[in-house]
Design brief:
There is one protein chain. The chain is an all-alpha fold. The protein contains 22 helices and no strands. The longest helix is centred in the N-terminal third of the chain and has 17 residues.
Length: 328
């Protein structure tokens, strides 16, 4: 970018030609390159504006983010005009038009207004599967720890029979990002512990861990799930509940005899986080140091114990876990 900036005018035409190509990755990279060089030509601003208002939510998100970042007088004027049109389109009859407008407005605000929230919730609970899929691409960048207003609707979508595994998985990622604000969706999340698709089931304990103490029972329940990956996920999630988790050390210790090797060793590391004096767990943690999947986690847990016993375990296996980490 620095080299290009020296003689930008000579290359701007070729870059603008490439910006109109059909390759979205190419377009994004060229946008970033032009912005880093400080380029703010009218043709470039025209291209950004057209992309923002094209009707494609994912493309408009990236282009509008670039426009906001430019902060030149002309780009600020464009931003203001685009936002004014977006506010007007919140009343449009077409839900996809309203949703794109809401998405643009939300990107420029620190908190979603009631009107923007209403559009997103209407789209999220629409009977039209395509509209629900469309709103998913809007949720991830928008929702955060203060946005509990969306959690109940997300919970209802999670419970719908026509919501695919892909959609449920995406919504679980959104709830994970929201943290404690996602508590209104708790019951729907817990029900997914028995969902047929293991890819969805194994995400549930990690989401529950982000919601805080009210969801402890769900994580404990996941310790007994039939899917070893879900049990492993619950094992890692439980220590995040801190003092409340210590009441369930018995249930956790029982998994040190689990038939699944990853669950068994992961449980030992989780137990050591809650009870560093557990000798049985320390023995399994030493085995975990020799496991390419768990060696880094085992090293972190053992070092965090800050005890001479743990340090001796690390020293005794240093050659082994160093090789395993490098191989991984």
């Amino acid at each position: 970018a620095r080299e290009l900036a020296v003689n930008l005018d000579a290359h701007a035409g070729a870059l603008m030609d490439s910006l109109s190509s059909g390759d979205s990755n190419c377009q994004r990279n060229i946008r970033e390159l032009l912005i880093r060089t400080g380029y703010s030509g009218t043709e470039f601003l025209d291209a950004l504006t057209e992309e923002i208002e094209s009707g494609d939510i994912s493309d408009s998100w990236g282009a509008f983010g670039h426009l906001i970042s430019m902060k030149t007088p002309e780009s600020l004027g464009r931003t203001k005009a685009i936002l004014a049109r977006a506010h007007a389109r919140l009343k449009d009859r077409d839900i996809s038009v309203r949703l794109l407008a809401a998405r643009i407005i939300a990107q420029s605000e620190s908190r979603c207004s009631d009107e923007v929230q209403g559009v997103i919730l209407d789209a999220l609970e629409s009977d039209d599967v395509k509209i629900r899929q469309l709103v998913l691409s809007s949720l991830w960048p928008i929702l955060g720890p203060r946005d509990s207003w969306a959690a109940a609707s997300i919970g209802r979508v999670l419970g719908r029979d026509d919501a695919s595994s892909e959609i449920k998985g995406f919504l679980l990622e959104v709830l994970h990002r929201m943290g404690p604000a996602a508590v209104p969706a708790l019951s729907s999340v817990e029900e997914l512990l028995e969902y047929p698709d293991f890819r969805v089931r194994r995400m549930v304990p990690a989401v529950l861990a982000e919601l805080g103490p009210p969801v402890l029972r769900g994580i404990v329940r996941a310790l007994g799930n039939r899917d070893p990956k879900t049990r492993a996920s619950a094992v890692w999630a439980l220590p995040r509940m801190a003092e409340q988790a210590k009441d369930h050390l018995g249930a956790l210790r029982a998994l040190m005899g689990d038939p699944d090797d990853e669950v068994r060793k992961g449980t030992a590391l989780a137990v050591l986080k809650l009870d560093p004096a557990d000798r049985d767990a320390l023995g399994l943690a030493e085995e975990a140091l020799k496991d390419s999947k768990l060696c880094s986690s085992a090293e972190t847990v053992l070092k965090g114990m800050r005890s001479s016993v743990a340090n001796r375990v690390i020293s005794r296996n240093r050659d082994c876990w160093t090789v395993k980490k490098a191989g991984r």
